[in-house]
Amino acid sequence: MKKIGLKRAKEEEDEQKKQSVCEQVLTFNMSPAEEEEGDEDVSDSEESVYSGLEESGSDSEDEPSANQQEGRVLNEEVEQLEERVLNEEEAEQREDEYEKDSSDEEDIRNTVGNVPMDWYKDFPHIGYDLEGRRIYKPIRNKDELDQFLDKMENPEFWRTVCDQQTGSDVVLSEDQLELIKRLQRGQFGDVSFNEYQPSVEFFSREVMIHPVTNRPSDKRSFIPSLTEKDKVSKMVHAIKMGWIKPRRVEDDSRGRYYDLWTNEDSSSILNKHRMHLPAPKLRLPGHEESYNPPPEYLLTEEERALWEQQDPSDRKLPFVPTKFSSLRHVPAFSRFIHERFERCLDLYLCPRQRKLRVNVNPEDLIPKLPKPRDLLPFPTTQSLVYRGHSGLVRSISVSPSGQWLASGSDDGSVRFWEVCSARCVRTVQTGGAVKSVAWNPNPAFCLLAVALDSVVLILAPSLADGHVTSSSERLLKSQQEAEPSEGVSCNWVETKGEELNQWIRLKIGHPKVVHQVTWHSKGDYLASVMPDHSSHLQVLIHQLSRRRSQNPFSRNKGLVQNVSFHPLRPYFFVATQRSVRVYNLLKQQLTKKLQANAKWVSSMAVHPTGDHVICGSYDCRLSWFDLDLSTKPYRMLRHHKKAVRGVAYHRGYPLFASASDDGSVIVCHGTVYSDLLQNPLIVPVKVLRGHVITQDLGVLDVTFHPSQPWLFSSGADGTVRLYT
Amino acid sequence: MGGLQKKKFESGAATNYITRNRARKKLQLSLPDFRRLCILKGIYPHEPKHKKKVNKGSTAPRTFYLLKDIRFLLHEPIVGKFREYKIFVRKLKKAYGKTEWSAVERLKENKPTYKLDHIVKERYPSFIDALRDIDDALCMCFLFSTFARTGKCHVQTIQLCRRLTVEWMNYVITSRALRKVFISIKGIYYQAEVMGQPITWLVPYQFAHDHPTDVDYRVMATFTELYTTLLGFVNFRLYLSLNLLYPPKLDIKSESELKEEDEDDYAMGSESYLEKLSALSASLARVVTSTEEEEAQIDLFPTEDENMEMMEEKEKEKKLLEAQMKIFEGLKFFLNREVPRESLAFIIRCFGGEVSWDKSVSIGSTYEMMDETITHHIVDRPNVDKRYINRYYIQPQWVYDCVNAKMLVPVEDYFIGVTLPPHLSPFVEEREGDYVPPEKLKILALQRGESQQQPEEEEEEEEEEEEEDEEEEDNDEEDQVEENKLKKMEEQRSQGKSLQVKVTPGKVKMENPVRLEQEEKAEEKRLAIMMMKKKEKYLYDKIMFGKKRKVREVSFLKSRNKYSLLWERIHPFDPL
């Protein structure tokens, strides 16, 4: 406020200076003070502008009083022209200051203080005076039209501004306009101020004879500084101790290269370090990666959809092959940085392992076997089909002479066929599903054992010459003298009448259902199998000549599947579900237990020498045991696709065959050497097909001709087939 | 007398391996530092044979390093540098915290740095080793050189990468080492043969990258650090081998030619020099200026016939190679502004052509578009306003296809606005039984010098063969029909029906002895396969499975190709 007051005073003086001549003397006298004031103006021109505006615009009661004061001052000054003008002036100014210092007087127009005026926007007054009365705004109810008219008519309109503080219109004077213009031009508010005053260069290159200041230099400027010495000595010490290093030379060795491999030494660390594997290179791109690939490499809609659905790791290609018509259409590959980054990760995170690439010719893997052509004779073609059965033919057997074939079927009939002509010579209706038939292997007899339900029938089809017939008659007759066996509940019944006409001679009743019958090679003994989990009575051995039955085993050792006599020695083979037991009948003890390595043994055959056994199993395997070698199979053959139902050895030729549910019979060559050191040679020679698979059953039984290299097989389609 | 019981996991495999965490502790490094060390030294994890034994009985998934590798790292001087750096960072942080700016300044001046020269030497004891492993380095440097100068990594690294790649390209041009090029959807592949080593690298297209967020740039930067060092030394050695100055200097002649133009466009002299180099249009200065290229004749030694044949073959190959190197010799190319200048200039210069471009595209153009001697004008736009008569206007693919075909491919297929023939990968080497696209067959025929008509005939022949096959199949079918007839009769008989007995005149079946033999052989094989051991059978089945799959794929592609050709014939303008 003080400053404003001062300036106000000064400007009024200026005005007066211009107006009156008499006052020029005064102004001359006053000039130093004026200059000072001018300086002040320069220092804060903004305020001066403000004050100027305010002052000239003010038309309140305050103004005349100020003028009066000024006038008074002037009058006084005029009066005391010659007397100590400056002092007077100063004193009066000080007085003035005090006068104007009273803030209420100064702000008489508006007492609200320094608050935003829009607070009073909605009120008719602006602030209060000393007595607490409202100071009203000048009434201004000019609407747009008035304003417009004003604008059109009033020549002063352009220089009229609204005073925010009082809300009244103020018309700017010429001086004020001039001032505004000057300020807009970026000039000083004061007209008389010279911006480009000549400057005096004190510090120039010319050496002056006199110093700028006359002050004598201090004593300390002549004495070496102790603190500096301290600092320097510390630094020296630090350098000596190596704590401070000299500033490093800018290392520009990056990107400066030289011949690194001038002397290549092979004995480097990595060479010693043999475990190092160089990283494999990236795969080179194929046609499908081209920007313009052949059309066959592009994906169709479905393939593309599939590609999008797949997990990124499952995809065959990591990108979609795309075709662009020209090079300018090719966009940036969005996964480029990803791929490079993945390569980086592979390089330092992937465990590396040397993998031996199997580079074998698959032909070399196939074992070199003798050609089947060299292993002839073996059955190669289907030559005869024996038709007649209406059910599945479970079992077949060839007479020891090789002239007749017996077959037992589920339709309840046993048929006798002439081998060479496929004629059915006899049909025996047994009245139950025939499980097994077995021709007496002794050529001196002509007997057939048939197992059905819980009975074993002995048939004597008079198909041989008189001599043989009579001898078999004798065998059957001789039984009559023998007493029935005790201990085993078997009843031997001789048949009469009608059944006799059917060539059924004997009925051996069993306690349970019989599944298999088999003869001893001498033709006197007969073994029958009644598989049963819970009983020790599973195998019975019958002696025909004495009509005696006995149970050789007193303990249950598993479900018996199949039994067989040793062709030469008094041994007995019993195939249970998982293993084959070999018993010595004379000593009545177990001699060997063969592990079949199969889940469920289905059939078994003994080699004519008795040293080898083959077992077929329901899990498609055929195991060949060498009894002299081990209790484990010498060879497991997985030739069949489905369960093996029957196996057979040829009596004379080194052949064996296996029949399976997949409708095929596989004939193998199996040479057994008399030299114990040489293992048997097993070569599959022929796959015979012909049977039709019915109800998931294929070939059920297989047997060889006793003298010829012929093979019979019976199937679920109700036929028996001969392969020669 | 047993003695002490042996403790488990104290000998054998368990002592040869070390888990990552233990290795890290042994080296007293933080995980990022350990990672960096592994990258620089080329240490990678190993997969032990018996994981459980090595893992001391546990089956938890762990990464194992060879203990030897880690011991080897223990003596690495860079480990010390890493620790120094760690300390430096700590001091710097402290100084910042205390706002001691002078200390910050001082520390920054003494920032520890390390060099990788000895590591490169150690990892690649011989120059050939380094060359063998240069593929990744090149790919990485080419990628980094296309990065923007802001953000992801230091500007110096990007500049260095650019410099090194330009040096490399200049070397390839000078030594005429480029062999194959391939425009893929990822970028452009190049394959050069340097000192007998095939070196393949991939250059991305010149677009700004949108940087993925799931990529760790620190790892990439560490790799680049190593790769720039490696590539620099390799470049030096290669330049040395060609008697070129390193760092490369332009030929005096070409330099003077380039001098006047464009000098003031670049703020820094070094920058403009690099640009001039990267223009790839000028030859490089040699150490010995008067170099008359004399190729030493290989002395021929009288050897055995087999070797002679080999030699002859080699000679032939060499001649072919020389011919390939000169395919663009005498041709003058002009690149329109929309084609990728660097790639094309590089390729054309590699094969002896002259190339230029519009002056406003880049520095280093040698002649103007109006030049009458220009033979090929490479354009990649639908049509051109002003055409000059005595030059071909072709699309850029022509250049790439020529390089891959090792000869000048007929230009007719590559004119402006023509649908381009497919661009095939030169990296695919078809073995027997693989699918060969018909376009490749065409090129092969061209290479043999046959006219264009022949391949079509070949195709026809193929078709004929196929027809023959079909005929054979027909025969089989006939046989089957007869068999079916017989079966029917059998069935009828088995059902007990009375057959109408009828005697028909029998046909004499012609037995084909060759076929019979084949069948017999096939059966023999089948039987022998049955007798295979389980292990071998498994392997055999696997191999056969692979073979069958391949055959299937090939036949699939073949059928696809036929189909698409058919499609084109029916709808010539519809894409599939």
TrEMBL record, chain B:
Residues 323-416 form the BRCT domain. It comes from the Eukaryota. SUPFAM superfamilies: BRCT domain (SSF52113). Pfam families: BRCT_2, Pescadillo_N. GO terms for molecular function: ribonucleoprotein complex binding; RNA binding. Component of the PeBoW complex, composed of BOP1, PES1 and WDR12. Within the PeBoW complex BOP1 interacts directly with PES1 and WDR12. The PeBoW complex also associates with the 66S pre-ribosome. Component of the PeBoW complex, composed of BOP1, PES1 and WDR12. The complex is held together by BOP1, which interacts with PES1 via its N-terminal domain and with WDR12 via a high-affinity interaction between the seven-bladed beta-propeller domains of the 2 proteins. The PeBoW complex associates with the 66S pre-ribosome. The PeBoW complex also associates with DDX27, PES1 interacts directly with DDX27. Interacts with IRS1 and UBTF. May interact with MAP1B. This is Pescadillo homolog. It comes from Gouania willdenowi (Blunt-snouted clingfish).
